[in-house]
# Entry
Amino acid sequence: MTTSEAIAMELPMLLIRALPGQEEDNARYLIEEGIAIEASHPSELAEKLVEMLENQEMLKQMKIRAENLQTKRAAFSVLDIIQSRLLKNLIFIEDQDTIQKFKKLRYIAYTILFSLFQ
# Structure
C-alpha cells in the first residue's frame, strides 16, 4: 500500500527503508506530522508494530492527523484547480495590473491556507 492510499484511508503507518530522494522526504514529513513511525531496521519492525498496537491513543491520534492532512491537501488542491482555470483566462489578458492583482490574490490565498493548517 502506498502512503497516499494509507492517508486516504486514514491509516497509521509503520515505515521502513524509504527510497532515496522524494520518498525519504515524504517519510520524514509523515513522521514529523505524527502520521507514521519508522523502523530504522527490519529487526525493529516487530517491536514498533507491538508499540503501535498496544497504544490505542497513539493510533487514534495518528488517524486524526491523517484525516487533517487530507483536509489540508484538499484545500490546496481546490486552490490549484481554481488557479489553473484562472491562468487559462489570463493568457488573453494583456493588462499587467490585472495580472499583478491575480498574483497578489493567489499569494494571499496560499498564505491564508498555510496559516489555517499550521
